[in-house]
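User: For documentation purposes, I need each entry recorded in a consistent format: the amino acid sequence on its own, followed directly by the corresponding structure tokens. There are two entries in this batch. Please keep commentary to a minimum and don't merge the entries.

Assistant: Recorded as requested. Entry 1:
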Amino acid sequence: MMLNYKLLYEIADSQKNNADAYKYFMLYIELRDEKIFSETKEEASILRKKYTVERTKREETENILEIVETEKDSLVIDTIKKSEQISQLEIEKKHQQEKIEWQEKEFEFNKKESEFNKNLAKKRQRIIILISIIGIIMFVVAIASYRMYKKINSKNKLLISQKQEIEVQRDEIHFQKKDIEDKNQHITASINYASYIQTAMLPPYADVKKSLNDMFVLFKPRDIVSGDYYWIKQKGDYQVIIAADSTGHGVPGAFMSILGISILNRIIDNQNNTSTSEILNKMRHSVITSLHQKKNDSKSKDGFDLAMIIYNKKTKQVEFSGANNPLILLRNKNEDFNPFIENEKIKILENENNTSKLVEIKGDKMPIGVHVYDNKNFNNFIFDAKKGDCIYLFSDGYQDQFGGKKGTKFMTKNFKKLLLSIHEKSAAEQKNILENKLQEWMNAGKGHSQLDDILIIGLKI
């Protein structure tokens, strides 16, 4: 049984099962001690018996000695004594050897027990260290979590405060937006009414068609109201046609256009047999006077760029003057162009691939308004119209419009090519083509919004 416990101890110790190893080791020691005690007791009994035997022998020996002594045989006595001493030494030696063996076994047991206790203490120390490390980690995590909680809580409070502030701002913005929308609606209504007034001041298109049947007006304001305007009036055999471009567009331009129309009405209604150049001279004087313009005042540069013709339906004679803006005439290539006054401002372009020639008569390089040369008279150009002629007056809005795949301006060169390609068509067809081409140009590429007011007047003789 003792060996079984020893074997169980060795198995548990090899498996690092310290609890079972300790239990089996203690059971083994307990059985071993019992066995050693039993063996020792048995040996003591044997020794007692031997001692009894020896004592008996000794007594016998003593008796013999007494006899021998009696017989005074000293030699025999000495021999017996020596024999007795030897026996006693042998017994003591055996006891001493058994004592040494027991001490060795006890030392070995104490050594193993000490090693076991050391290993157990190391394992306990490791467990304590591990538990301490886990505790420290948990403490650090707890502190970090608490700090994170405080930080998040602080941020949440800040976010709530910011949210409340944003909501207040949102409400304020909503109120301002509503106020702006109301004002914008009111302003838009006012501008729409201004548009109605401006339209009422322009000549009705039906009246224009009555006086000049084959004629078109392409009029496209950039905003609700326009800085560009046209002015057409029948006076006896004369037809007065003006295409004007005011400084700016939108509401400021519209104010200027109303001023220009009012001045034209006053000048032409109150005078007869006035040339185009004289009309522009008087119009410039009225604008400078009405706007209190001065040459040295850089802020007061408002005015008009315009092209004007007076067409005598009876004599088929055309008189032209321009303030920065030109007149374009398209005529059959075989027909001559002989103006009454030769001038470097007249440019005739002929294209071999086209049956028509393009005549451009440039306006004077000064506006209707204050200018460094505002004391200089405008030039007058007179020529005879031919059947099939097409005369065009226009502002710069069409040519300056951005569009196409590259987002560039349409340019005057392309505008002239377009007029060359359509001038033989009816006035209504020409207007449709110009509108469609403009829309196509603006929608190409990324798409572009209208840059400026657009005005083109086409008259087919």
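Entry 2:
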Amino acid sequence: MLQPKTDKFLEYSISELKEQAYQSLLSKPDNEIVLLRVILPPISHFKKIYPALQSKLLPQFYLKDRKGEKIYLAQGSLLEIASHSDYHAAKEAYVALENLPEGSKLFGGFSFFPKPQTNPWESFPVSYFFLPNFLWEFTKENTVLYMHFFKQHDEKENQDAIHALFDSLTQNLSLGTFTNVNPREPSCTPTFPQYKEIVEYALKNIRWNHFKKVVLAREVQCNCSLTAEEVLEALDNGEPSFLFYFRPDETSVFLGRSPELLLDIKKGATGASIVTEAVAGNRPRSKNPVENGNKEQELLHSEKDIQEHDFVVKYIEEVLDEFTTNLFTTTSNTLKVLQNVHHLYRTFRGKLKPYTSEEEILETFHPTPALGGYPKRKSLRFLEEHEIMDRGWYGAPIGFISARHSLFLVAIRSALLQGNRMHIFSGSGIVRQSDPGLEWQELNVKIKHFLDILEKADPKEVEKLKSLLSIEC
């Protein structure tokens, strides 16, 4: 269903934006990609941005920083770089960036494994980046709109192209374009017996010194009566995590609330700096402050969780030692406190060595032992041979690159929504002291934010799902 004709998009006049775009375009050179920039008043409330995600202008990428201070909304594509077999699109994206106007950002990411995607990830290339037609950057101070156009010599063609883009922006996706299926019973891949068998075999491999840690993932499927935009808005509860939403086409949305930064690289006059972090080990949170305090102390002194976290710390230090100077990290673990879970946490900061390749850093970092295992090569081989679900983009880097600032988070605490079917993903780190039943319960804690949202819309569905996931430890 198309929304009624209106001159407003969000809180801004479309006719004024069209005129500003056209006038700005007149002074730009012909037959080139040009970037137009318009500074607008701040939007009255960040939650008023969600209706914009219903626009038919695709792809769409939404990213809110974990301080809740800035939102990026990228819509439509002037340029797409994709690979359906490997991570080559990431390399091509960095090359393309060199020939784009200053200030351009490319949004995207890649899958966990560099191999062709299978069900339910067919809409997602192995690696993919796009240059948006419209990029909105929202802060409390103002809204900045960046518009990418290919300027042609003919003025009427330019004007028609601007009108067509803005018309697409203000039209909503038809509900009929989504693939809705008949309701099905909730399912889980792997089931607990399958998961227990894989964990026990992983523990044997750890005892045999094939690797020291491996992270096993799980996919839960259930019916969902909410739209992707409603799920995203419900996820936006003030937790200090990244909020992300990526819709590559009309059929699928990948979204989540990730607490984990992979890379934050900023370039300035004195060189490039990098920030990353280790997040691993956990204890569930409750509404009881005394119980939470006990869980925090338990986590800070848990040999199993400290070991699991240390593998991540060691790997990050090894990588940063190769790419950086002046490396700084906290000397001891601190806690990252989220809505449903506590994590062990450590931050790393450094200065990149001259002529360091960002693309090489990105591919080297992914995945850290927080999502893959340690050592990297042997643990990933185990996952490819024994994990019985397709991770797709779960646990992989997602974010943006630009000449001055590149940001990637780790796409965890995430779900894939296709019509009325939701696929929820989670993972847990297996080390020598792991117990299959306790690891399974950890997986349940890590999807609680989605279950809480779904329960308000369909309590019977969630009741069946909880029954499916329950075990006696």
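Summary note for entry 2:
The domain at 187-469 is CATH 3.60.120.10 (Anthranilate synthase).
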